[in-house]
Amino acid sequence: MSAILVDGGIVHYEVIGRGRPIIFLHGWSGSWRYWVPAMQSASTSFRAYAMDFWGFGDTAHDKERYAIHRQVNLLENFLSEMGFAKVALVGHGLGGLVGLQFTSRNPGMVDRIMAVSVPMEIAAVNAKLRTAPPMDVADWLLPKNSAAEPVRVDTAKLDPLAVTASFGTPDNFSLASRIGSINNSCLLVYGQNDPAVSLPPYDPSIAPFNMHMIVLEQTGHFPMIDDNARFSRLLVDFLALESGATPRDLQLKEEWKRRVR
After folding, report:
1. What is the spatial distance between Cα 119 and Cα 124, in angstroms, rounded to a whole number?
2. Which residues contact 55 (CB under 8 A, 6 or more apart)?
3. Which of helix, strand or coil describes residue 218?
4. Domains, the chain, ranges and CATH?
5. For 190, how many CA atoms within 13 A lie in the half-sphere containing its CB?
6. pLDDT digits over 39-82, tens only?
7. d(Cα 37, Cα 221) in Å, to the nearest integer?
8. What is the pLDDT of residues 171-230, one digit of tens each?
């Protein structure tokens, strides 16, 4: 286990691979651990890091640090402590919100960002995700297989207040009107059958050229668990794009096209 001291608190992270840094940010259930298969896929070309937010996993539990802006500060300070000038980000749910806000604040530090299952407004979040006990949420969202066990095990370790506090400022979820100001290469990924986060409207004809959205069929809130092979292929393809290239180039592959019915 690796850990550093950030703003007086212990922050847990893990790392594999060699190359440019990529940071994986977990969601409202579990911790860093469910990113391991994706980290392994990325580690052939990147040095892959995954960290636990305040109140999750083995990072310090401190209710004064649980608001989203404090989690954004944690990411900012973590990168500073690690000496990173520019990174790729992959964030899921809460991690996607943190990653997008960090990118908006520090565009020069982000080469590209993949945001997975991220609500574009507070109304897009199912009330059960916000209010149910964490273990009930995990059982609701996860498949009944061994791949989901790391999420269940680590969900039992999180502080429920860390989830509650993240929903305390609804303005943090008003991404639809602000995401257009992000000029970094940005790929939005959703599970077609996600019961927790509603799919946002997406019209490529009016969306920023640096942005693209892909919906993975037959997956839910955890597409990296529901279909790890397809998710990892998409991740590797996204990371293989030239720096600054539009993620819309991915739609040239039939398997990534969103099927509109």
Report:
1. 6
2. 61, 62, 63, 65, 66, 158, 159, 161, 162, 165
3. coil
4. 2-256 (3.40.50.1820)
5. 22
6. 999 999 999 999 999 999 999 999 999 999 999 999 999 999 99
7. 17
8. 888 887 678 788 899 999 999 999 999 999 888 777 788 899 999 999 999 999 999 999
